[in-house]
């Protein structure tokens, strides 16, 4: 009887351990294409080189235990796929508008290779950045900035859609709808660029559209309403095309500082989503307009202005029932004393896993894994991600 009882106990422990290790958890990596941060290493029209490079990246992350790739397919109103709206990206082939040779569809290829390895494919798009650098970017004649120059404003060295322009909002929605309708992606993913980060001493030049559409609102409230409206439009379009396709946002890590709002975090961030990027993430979560949030918590534990632990507790308390994945700054390795500590990233993973409303993590960005800083690839593969886990279901 004792042997039977012991066997039952051991089986129960084993089942518990298995259930713990396979608890749904997103384990994602951002693959940035803008300026060839991650992929391709350098532009090339050679499709075979592109394919081989993506396969190497996908294999590396599969080996490390990832279950999702977040791939930037529209970095600056251009495309890593054949688009009826926008030209081929300069960061893919070296010249905007130039397709790969031999011709193929890179997005379709990347989706198939990702799914073949049992990982989700999140199509990462930048909504409003149109020209990355007005001083040295080659812009194809078919680029929308040439067709509808009235939709755009210049701020710093970049050109942006004016978020207050209704036609611009409809255009961006059409671009997203096209991708969701044609490709078997698991999510549309936007990061933190809605209104751009402030440039000191320069005001974003949207007075024309504010005078036209402001309707007595304060400029800040009007800007937030513009961002809200594009989120609603995108959410509806995505679900109309594919109700199983998720819509995720990866915002800057601080929604609002507590000195501005009692609901904010005990941080002292110089810019915030609500006050500077005009992105009211909490509203979008509360209204169910987005399916997941992945705040970029790239600071270290104990940071004096934006402490990782403070922020992870705050986001855990403000998910509104939606999936929350923490953006981890693996790229920060060796950047300061805190990130020279090889326990920094493991402690962050352990901390986020201790929170009931945090459902996983995303790492920025892919190329850092090439060098295995502090042996963190090994830590993921042999410890934290040793057991495979399914990605969480949409809430």
Describe the structure.
- With 395 residues, the chain is α/β, with parallel strands linked by helices.
- Strands 1-2-3-7-8-9-11-12 form an 8-stranded parallel β-barrel, surrounded by 4 helices. Strands 4-6-5 form a 3-stranded antiparallel β-sheet, with no helix packed on it.
- Helix 2 packs parallel to helix 4.
- The N terminus is likely disordered.
Helix/strand layout:
Blueprint: H1 2-21, E1 26-31, H2 47-63, E2 68-74, H3 90-93, H4 106-116, E3 120-125, E4 129-131, H5 144-147, E5 152-155, E6 158-161, H6 166-182, E7 187-190, H7 207-213, H8 219-241, E8 246-249, H9 273-277, H10 281-287, E9 292-293, E10 296-297, H11 308-316, E11 323-328, H12 344-353, E12 360-363, H13 376-384
Parallel strand pairs: 1-2, 1-12, 2-3, 3-7, 7-8, 8-9, 9-11, 10-11, 11-12
Antiparallel strand pairs: 4-6, 5-6
Helix pairs in contact: 2-4, 6-8
């Amino acid at each position: 009887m004792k042997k039977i009882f012991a066997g039952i106990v051991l089986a129960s422990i084993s089942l518990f351990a298995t259930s713990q290790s396979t608890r749904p958890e997103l384990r994602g990596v951002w693959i940035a294409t803008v300026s060839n941060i991650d992929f391709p290493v350098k532009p090339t029209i050679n499709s075979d080189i592109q394919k081989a490079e993506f396969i190497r990246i996908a294999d590396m992350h599969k080996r490390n235990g990832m279950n999702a790739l977040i791939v930037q397919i529209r970095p600056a109103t251009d495309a890593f796929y054949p688009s009826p709206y926008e030209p081929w990206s300069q960061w893919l082939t070296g010249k905007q508008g130039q397709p790969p040779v031999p011709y193929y569809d890179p997005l379709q290829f990347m989706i198939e290779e990702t799914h073949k390895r049992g990982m989700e494919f999140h199509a990462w798009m930048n909504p409003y950045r149109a020209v990355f650098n007005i001083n040295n970017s080659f812009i194809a004649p078919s680029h929308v900035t040439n067709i509808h120059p009235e939709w755009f404003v210049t701020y710093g060295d970049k050109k942006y859609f004016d978020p207050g322009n209704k036609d611009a909002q409809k255009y961006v929605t059409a671009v997203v709808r096209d991708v969701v309708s044609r490709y078997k992606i698991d999510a549309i993913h936007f990061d933190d660029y809605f209104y751009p980060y402030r440039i000191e001493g320069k005001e974003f030049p949207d007075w024309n559209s504010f005078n036209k559409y402001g309707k007595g609102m304060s400029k800040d409230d009007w800007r937030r309403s513009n961002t809200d409206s594009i989120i609603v439009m995108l959410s509806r379009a995505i679900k109309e095309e594919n109700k199983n396709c998720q819509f995720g946002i990866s915002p800057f890590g601080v929604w609002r500082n507590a000195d501005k709002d009692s609901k904010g975090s005990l941080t002292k961030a110089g810019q915030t989503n609500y006050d500077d990027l005009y992105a009211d993430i909490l509203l979008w979560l509360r209204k169910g307009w987005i399916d997941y949030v992945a705040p970029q918590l790239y600071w270290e534990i104990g940071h004096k202005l934006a402490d990782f632990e403070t922020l992870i507790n705050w986001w855990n308390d403000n998910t509104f029932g939606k999936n929350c994945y923490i953006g981890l700054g693996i790229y920060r390795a060796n950047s300061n004393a805190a990130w020279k500590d090889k326990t920094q990233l493991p402690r962050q993973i352990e901390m986020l896993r201790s929170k009931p409303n945090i459902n996983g993590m995303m790492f920025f960005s892919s190329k850092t894994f090439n060098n295995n800083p502090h042996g963190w690839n090994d830590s993921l593969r042999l410890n934290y991600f040793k057991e495979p886990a399914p990605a969480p279901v949409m809430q």
